[in-house]
Amino acid sequence: MKLLVTGGAGFIGSNFIQYMLREHNDVDIINIDRLTYAGNLENLSTVEKNDRYRLIKTDINDRVALEPIFSEGIDIVVNFAAESHVDRSILDPDVFVRSNILGTQTILELAKKYNVQKFVQVSTDEVYGTLGESGLFVEDSPLAPNSPYSASKAGADLLVRAYHETFGMPINITRCSNNYGPFQFPEKLIPLMIQNALQDKNLPVYGDGLNIRDWLYVEDHCSAIDLVIRQGRNGDIYNIGGNNERTNIQVVRTILQELNKPETLIEFVQDRLGHDRRYAIDASKIRKELGWNPKYDYESGIRETIRWYLNNREWMKRVHSGAYQQYYSKNYAGA
Ligand code: NAD
Fold this sequence. Notes:
alpha/beta; Rossmann fold; seven-stranded parallel beta sheet; 12 helices; binds nicotinamide-adenine-dinucleotide; dTDP_Gluc_deHydtase; NAD(P)-bd_dom; dTDP-glucose 4,6-dehydratase activity; dTDP-glucose 4,6-dehydratase; EC 4.2.1.46
């Protein structure tokens, strides 16, 4: 099976590529990544010499560069490539529209032209907007995105859906809750807090810290996408989540406890604009229909994750200093 993975140098994409090459001998992967600030090839150093893996540095909007890749024959597209940070989308929405919506449409068009067997769009629970104190997002909950990030992801989902309805393209859309685990860019809650705590810096927590997210260990997200690729019913959407609702302040306190740091490091800061209060996923469809079962419970997953960042401080330092961005020119010279 020849997989075209976009955005594979990012947090989830790099975990996914490692997972697929480890779990399956019949999978070849081409990774298309523009290597934005969030793309880190160090995340893929364990697979870069694997014969079944190839990196092509390009933008998913670059149809001319992508055409020869599609014409080689691609079985499945898994589209992770996106601008993914809500705070950045508030400061500069343009690039979110370009990468997340227009980029998705560009590769949809190529997938249609070259008759790929399936297009899997990796989406997010944030497209559903926010919940009150009770209730869960189900696959047919209305789309009500509140940030430019989630609006751009919802726009992409609708295009994917339209290519299925109009052109009969075989597709699936997955909508997962917040991921945590190794290789996450330290602008996101968990690695940011770990990094600051290790340096005895303040831990900035938005508003009252009571916003709720539903956390899933990244490898469990990867195993769910793997199932959807192989068994997902054509045209269907699958919610993915682990029933691990935690307030942001709970997450931060766990990190401080694990690192033996005082709670006085917590600093409540002005809330994010349009900050969604609560996300919670009903993942019973993928559990029942595809037999998906997450392996990690939150308490052990979060501890394992904290240990990973502790054991990989050099990785963190290179991300922080910007040195990770030289990896491509050093290791892919002449590529
Ligand atoms: P990330 O920001 O860590 O990685 C994104 C990757 O996409 C980077 O390698 C970047 O270089 C690449 N990229 C960005 N724009 C590109 C473009 N125009 N062309 C080619 N490559 C481009 O993101 P992530 O956290 O790994 O998320 C991956 C996907 O999963 C995203 O689509 C996101 O919406 C979705 N998602 C993320 C979460 C989460 O908790 N992180 C949860 C659910 C869904």
